[in-house]
Amino acid sequence: MRKLDTKTIVVASHNAGKIREIAELIAPFGFSAKSAADLKFEEPDETGTTFEENAAIKALASAKASGLPALSDDSGIVIDALDGAPGVYTANWAEREDGSRDFAMAMEKVEKALQDKGATTPEQRSCRFVSVLCLAWPDGHTELFRGEVEGTVVWPPRGTDGFGYDPIFQPQGFDTTFGEMSSDQKHGWKPGDAQALSHRARAFKRFVETCLET
User: Does the keyword Cytoplasm belong to this entry (predicted)?
Assistant: First the structure.
């Protein structure tokens, strides 16, 4: 495992929601960070078939373009009744013909697919959010960190916080969706805490333990 020995990194993302959440998670560690969007890097084609492959593609592209370590996230919702879909294609389900993304439309697609499968009870709508963080260096070295949180798909969507599919994801043991939680509630973690709630916070905790803590 390679330790991160700089406080200057690139957040390898063009997704405003992810950039905001990663910025919130790294802030306590004093990082100076700009996103791939800020630096106007082109978005690489995500040709991988796993979260790990796509996270590495994004992080390596930004690391090589910037000459700095880059931290990426590839994440999605995995729904059991839909045989794991949308999975690595979570963002694709939100794409419109003009290239924009409409997550309200994507959530409706999920609900229609579940209804078509006859998955109407909470037990039939089990799912998990998955996040894989990749830290990449310009020399091609990578470290990968995976976090998952189990939950249930609910309908109709609830809450306006968060982003993406958060309004239909109710984490196990809670009666509120990620869309109804503040950032602090959703992450459920800050430096020094033993537990984390969100998939991204769980992956980030592993990143901290591996690459930052001595």
Answer: no
